[in-house]
Structure formats: C-alpha cells, structure tokens
Amino acid sequence: MSLDLIVRNAALPDGRAGLDIACEGGRITAIEAGITAEAARVIDAGGRLVSPPFIDCHFHMDATLSLGLPRLNKSGTLLEGIGLWGELKPLLTHEAVAERALRYCDLAVAQGLLAIRTHVDVCDDRLLAVEALLDVRERIAPYIDLQLVAFPQDGYYRSPNAAKNLDRALDLGVDVVGGIPHFERTMADGAASVAALCEIAEKRGLMVDMHCDESDDPLSRHIETLAAETTRLGLQGRVAGSHLTSMHSMDNYYVSKLLPLIAEADIQVIANPLINIVLQGRHDTYPKRRGQTRIPEMRPHGINASFGQDCCMDPWYSLGSADMLEVAHMGLHVGQMTSREAMRFCFDAVTVNPAKAMGLDGYGLDVGCNADMVLLQAADPIEAIRLKARRLAVVRRGKVIAETPPQIATLSLDGRPPTVDPAAYAPPV
Ligand SMILES: [Zn+2]
User: Fold this and answer.
1) Neighbours of 179 (CB within 10 A)
2) Which positions ≥6 away from 425 have C-beta within 8 Å?
3) How far is CA 42 from CA 22, 391, 400, in A?
4) CA–CA distances in Å: residue 187 to residues 35, 158, 165
C-alpha cells in the first residue's frame, strides 16, 4: 500500500534514532525501523532530529509587526509600550490587523511553529482586533492551531468597559479568559480581578491565562491568589500564570511556601525570556535584575513550565522572528540552565510543555498523533538550540508545508573537504 508520507532515518527528541515515521490520513500510523511501505512523499532525515512542532503559548498577534506605528518606544519600558499600544489602538483597522497577523503566520509556518496562543486586547470597545483574529484563526486553521485569550490590557477594573467587553469577546468565541492583576489600581483590585476572572472561566468551562505579576515588585503576589482561586474552583491544570517576573525578586523564604501552592493548583507557568530580559530591571541601576521567573526551582516540584515568545516587532520589542529556538536559547541563558539535562528541558519548554499548557489534542510523535513534525538540521535537541537549527521540512497532517535548504558552506579555501555542515560538530551525548 502507498502512504501519504514516510520520514526515513529520523532521530527523535527522546534519543531514539534510526526510525521511520509513516503518515496516513493526517495521522502517524507507525514509528519503527525499516518500514517497507511506499509513500507519495519520502523524506530522508539522514539521522537528523525530527521533533513535534514548536509551540508558542504566549503571544500578542494583534500587535505583531506594528513596530514604529505610530512611533517607536523610546524608553523601552513595559509602561511606555502599553501607552504606545494605547496610541495605536484607535488607528487599527480590521484589515490591517488581519494582514499583519497572516504575514506573521507565514513566518511561523516556515519556522515550524504550528500552535500559538495569542492574547487579544478587549479594551477597545469596537472589539476590532478580536474580530480580526477570529477571522485569522479560521483562515489559518489548516496550518496553525490558534487559541485566543480575552486580555483586558488596560485592567479588568481599571478600564471602564473591560468587564463588559471581555464577556462580549468570550461570547464571540474567544477561547481563554485573560487578566492583568498587577495593572489594576490596587493590590486588592488585582486580587479581586483574579477571583472574578477565574469564576467566569469556571462558569463557562474555559481555561485561564493571566499576565500575572509582570513587575520587579517583590510584594506583587497575585500568583498566590491565582493558585488559591484555581484550587478553590477546581480549575487545576487549566490555569496559566504568564510572566511571574516578580518571583525573581521575592524573598526566598516566601517562595519556599509559594512553589508548593503553584504545584498543588497545577498552574501552567509561562516565562517569556526575550521580553523579561529586556523589560525587567529597568528601574535598577546596578546590579540589574534579570526578571525571569524561577524555572529551575519550579522543576523539582513537578510544575509544568514553558517559554513563550510574547512579542515580535511591536510596541514592546523591536526584534523577534517566530523562532522558538531563539526563545529557548535566551531562556536557557537567562536561567543559567546549562547542564545537558536542563538544556534538554529548554527544548521541551517550546514543544511538549506548552502543548500541555494549551491542552492540545493529538500532539506528539506517537502512533495515532497528528502527523505534524519538523525536520531540523541538528542531531539532537541541544544542538537544535545551539544552532537555532534550520527547519529543513515542516509537516502538517502528513503534508510538507514548508521547506528550507540546509545550511552548508561549499567553498574550500585550503583543500579541506568542501562541504561544511554546522550540525557535523555535535559533541557525543
Ligand atoms: Zn504578554
């Protein structure tokens, strides 16, 4: 019989090697050595790494690729970014938001990034960005799983119509309940917003993903409330705490009490290394805090932690390229996660861990899973992060949807072999 696709001689992220992956009807039908069937398309992985697709569980697609509109962020701070986004909002059109989002999705597909959770600001009474991204979610569904979070950027209580607009956005089909407790007027308002938003999620049967404690304030403790409300309402495993940068600055004794509470509530932790390292510590002279939350300390508690990209060429960040290996690379450095085991974790933090945080069905390289995968120009996950390896082939439901030629040097200066593949320098594991 003839299959849709066979990927031959693949190395998997868990270390297994020399395997063939058979795909039929959009699913993986076999993973074993020496599959004899024929297929409409055969890819020779050549012993290289085949991974399930990259996932970005924290992004802002309504703002992406808007860099310079209507002006640049001079101070580079979070608060100027929020102010600048407020200047841009009245100028947005449905068409422009959708067009930028779709351009970004093209880039994401080429980078093997096939699932994205994006926050969408609901503080504009027109809900223009919500409607534009709902359109985009439908249009790109054949390629990317897009989840939308109703995000009250200017505060659930602080912005006059945010509560009403958030309900409207959820009625329109937005998937997840968002929040921003540290931006409310008072700590008490922040805590009240966490409780109110978790109750909305419980009533509607939705997940929660809050921007939580995105500050350098060691006393910003909304994550404590988020964990407590999650447990009270029985939402364990369905609530994400994004950023949690205040934990970087918290008292160590207090953190020793907090981590078990986060574990008990099964909070999905999402750090955003590119953004945390440039936005946090801005009020410091020296030493300057890094601001990334305490990922290595969470791991022994069994807390599921992921890395998100957050921003790409928008009011908060001028760089970004939809490359989740760049995100993993930064998270690894900022968190000083340099053991081989910790580096492997950093690859999981942009693949399997965010799949769990987003509750994606059929994700992974197993028989019966969706036939979605990425062939990388690397031998293993650590080398993929080191090289920010090329995506030689991106597969969605058994079809190749993007290809990039391998990076090779063909010039020989001194008679050495003329072809140099950067992946050839991998050390033995
Ligand atoms: Zn964000």
Assistant:
1) 31
2) none
3) 9, 16, 10
4) 60, 12, 22
Asked if residue 198 has pLDDT above 80, the reply is: yes
Query: Could you tell me the two tokens for 292?
Result: 């990334």
Q: Which residues keep their CB under 5 angstroms from ion ligand 1?
A: 310
Catalytic entry in 214, 224, 229, 326: 214
Per-residue model confidence as pLDDT tens digits over 27-77: 999 999 999 999 999 999 999 999 999 999 999 999 999 999 999 999 988
| Number of other residues whose CB lies within 10 A of the CB of residue 136 | 24
Contact 144, 172 (CB under 8 A): no
Determine how β-strand 373-376 pairs with β-strand 391-396.
antiparallel
Distance 235 CA to ligand 1 centre (A): 22
pLDDT in tens, 322-375: 999 999 999 999 999 999 999 999 999 999 999 999 999 999 999 999 999 999
The CA-atom distances, in angstroms, between 398 and each of 5, 52, 108, 364 are: 6, 12, 18, 13
Burial of 117 (0-12, 13-18, 19+ CB in 10 A): buried
For the question of residue 403 being annotated catalytic, the response is no
Q: Which two tokens stand for residue 172?
A: 């329109």
Q: How close is the Cα of 41 to the center of ligand 1, in Å?
A: 39
Question: Can you tell me which residue has the tokens 């993993």?
Answer: 328
Beta bridge partners of 232: none
How far, in Å, is the centroid of ligand 1 from the Cα of 153? 9
* pTM, rounded to two decimals: 0.96
Q: Is residue 422 over pLDDT 80? A: no
Which residue is associated with the tokens 């090697």? 17
- pLDDT of residue 209 exceeding 70, the answer is yes
- Residues 313-328 as b/e (b if ≥16 CB within 10 A, e otherwise) read bbbbbeebbbbbbbbb
